[in-house]
Write a structure and sequence with these properties.
By secondary structure, the chain is mainly alpha-helical. It is built from 2 helices and 2 strands. The mean pLDDT is about 80.
Length: about 100
């Protein structure tokens, strides 16, 4: 392969990469315009107000401070989520004072 062939091959390679980047940019611009139109349509249409009977009641404020004994915060969060699921109450209606890991 001589210098001319190598130069032509390099230029063609750069041209194809540049062309691919330009095509990707065009696709992204078109996708962005489509998404913007869809988002604008959904915000323009008034949303139906939920009926008070179907919307769950939320408790205001905080339930105080939680003390952790030999338990990391991730494990405590999992325990609180399980208790809320099993009792059928929202997490903000429950009050946890402390969580302690029991070791055998």
């Amino acid at each position: 392969m001589n210098y001319i062939d190598a130069l032509v091959t390099a230029v063609m390679g750069y041209a194809f990469v540049f062309l691919g980047i330009v095509l990707l940019m065009i696709v992204m611009i078109i996708t962005g315009k489509i998404m913007y139109k869809n988002a604008k349509k959904s915000t323009d249409a008034p949303a139906a107000a939920p009926t008070p009977s179907t919307e769950p009641k939320k408790a205001p404020g905080t339930a105080g401070e939680l003390k952790l004994y030999d338990t990391d915060p991730k494990t405590a969060a999992i325990i609180m989520a399980i208790v809320a699921e099993k009792t059928g109450k929202p997490l903000n209606e429950l009050r946890f004072k402390s969580i302690k890991e029991v070791k055998e």
